[in-house]
Amino acid sequence: MQLWFQTWQEVETYLQHAQGIIIPIGSTEQHGPNGLIGTDAICAEQIARGTGELANALVAPTISVGIAGHHMGFAGTMTLAPTTLIRLIGEQVEALAAHGFRSFFFLNGHGGNIATVQAAFAELHAARWRAGLPEVRCKLLSWWECDGVQKLWRELYGDAEGLHATASEVAVTRYLFPEHIKNVPLDPAIAPTSHFYDARDYRRRFPDGRIGSNPALSTPQDGEKLYKAAASGMAEAYRAFLAEPWDGAAV
Ligand SMILES: [Zn+2]
After folding, report:
1. Which of 126, 142, 165, 166 has its CA 20 to 30 A from that of 208?
2. In percent, how much of the chain has pLDDT > 90?
3. What is residue 248's predicted lDDT score, i.e. its pLDDT?
4. Cross-strand pairs, 21
């Protein structure tokens, strides 16, 4: 159930029996020669949609630009400063908390967001504690962390999964948007892997943008399996999050 497609009365009714909401968060950044720039936001948004259906949960609009400074050496990448994302998350959670939402499940599509999102949670909790506001809970989980997804990509791609522009995320976008599949030769087939420093260093070490992956292996059929495993794994994690012991009256 997407928040955008409800009326305010429907949201009021939802809040009478539920206080949880799913917030997809991704990134708008290069994903190599055959991966879409929207990959991380598309995966987060679409998997959140499936998760919301399975868990009967509301899904907020996607935070589609994240922390992608290290990809700025490639055209089309957009990024926020970490402090901007921290404020954006804090203000969005506060707006929803004002209506009675208490449990915020951030369904993540980009590893580069993790440190900043955790910092945003720490800022939010500290500010609410100082102000004496009621308890809220925030959880961040990346869709590829589900056991079912991990098992699948190991079977499908093994070492060719990689760390950026991964075979599995490209497969999910190929399943969802087959009209946007790019068939571009990759050389080398499996991209190099190492650490990196800044955007210039990233471009130097990974000239086509991929890290360790061979997304030429990705098929829409794989993407469908990965999408379904992710949606069901995230729905299970969402339900477990809501079921954790809770004392909403504590300040
Ligand atoms: Zn990605």
Report:
1. 142
2. 97
3. 54
4. 58, 104
DSSP codes of every residue in the chain? -BGGGS-HHHHHHHHHH--EEEEEE--B----TTS-TTHHHHHHHHHHHHHHHHHT-EEPPPB-----GGGTTSTT-B---HHHHHHHHHHHHHHHHHHT--EEEEEE--GGGHHHHHHHHHHHHHHHHHHTPPP-EEEEEEGGGSHHHHHHHHHHHGGGS-SBS-HHHHHHHHHH-GGG------SSSSPP-----SHHHHHHHSTTS-BS--GGG--HHHHHHHHHHHHHHHHHHHHHHHHS---TT--
Q: What is the CATH number of domain 3-243?
A: 3.40.50.10310
| CA 140 to ligand 1 center in whole angstroms | 16
Q: 229-241: per-residue pLDDT in tens?
A: 999 999 999 999 9
Which pair of tokens denotes residue 29?
């950044």
Q: How far does the centroid of ligand 1 lie from the alpha carbon of residue 94, in Å?
A: 28
pLDDT of residue 177: 98
31 Cα: distance to centroid of ligand 1 (angstroms)? 6
Judged by phi (left if over 0) then psi (alpha if -120 to 50, else beta), residue 132 lies in left
For residue 45, pLDDT beyond 70: yes
* CA 92 to ligand 1 center in whole angstroms: 23
Q: In the predicted model, what is the mean pLDDT of residues 167-182? A: 98
Ligand 1 geometric centre to CA of 12 (Å): 35
Confidence of residue 250 (pLDDT cuts 50, 70, 90): very low
Averaged over 102-131, what is the pLDDT?
A: 98
pLDDT for the residue numbered 246: 78
